[in-house]
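ESCALATION

Customer reports they have been waiting on this structure for their group meeting. Please prioritize. Original submission:
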Amino acid sequence: MDVAALASRLRVLAADLPAPGLATADAHLDRALTALTEAARESGAEVGLHRLGAAREHLAAARTRLAEAACAVDDYLDAIGAAGTVNRRASAPSGPATAKAAPVDARQWWTDRVDELCRRSGTPEPAATTPTKLFNELLKAAADGSADAYHRRLRDAGPETGVRLPGLAWPLVRALAAEHLGRAPAARDLPVLGGRCADRVRALVPGAEPQHLDRALASACALGPARGEETGDAAAAAALGPALVAALHRLPRRSPGDHRPERKRPR
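Update from on-call: job pushed to the front of the queue and completed.
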């Protein structure tokens, strides 16, 4: 391969470096960080900020290595007398991408996930609302047993509002669980609480897996995930929050002085 052909090949490789894609990913992570920070102010539960921060650090390191690779190609072309041929757009990892990235629907992942969790579909009709109003609407849909309304309102609210639902739901879940048990919930209570709520929750969120319910209860009761366990996804937590509140509200209450032993559920 002669010098001209080698330089041409290197130009093609340099043009294919995914700097625009990494810049788009960084912008999405930045928006997610803003939304989670706001949600964390309303919730005592761990909402994954440290994981998102770590993801941004890894992405920044990848962009730095990409810039170094582009510079190395430039340096090599300088050395063989073919300078000035490589686009250095990847050399500024913190700046905007010069190439136009493919458009991304920021709401689509939310729509797809909510459809999957609720096992329903339809054409989204984005609706501006507040977290409190959405929470109350979902509680009403749960009380009415309207899985269709529950799915539609959650889907149409979008991720910006939806991710704040756990901040409203978890304190109520914790209080209702304590009223049902007659004391503050402990880790050993989670399987019992989950079992008693599961049918009503799945009537609204049939796509929720048992581990989703366990994580939601653990987060709500400030017990945290098991060591080494993932915290789950934001859409699942949002979908389960109001459903759990509605399910726990229907369970009998026990006074703090009532120490009757729990009946074992039949296997």
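Sent to customer with the following note: Confidence is low (pLDDT under 50) at residues 85-104, 226-231.
Escalation resolved.
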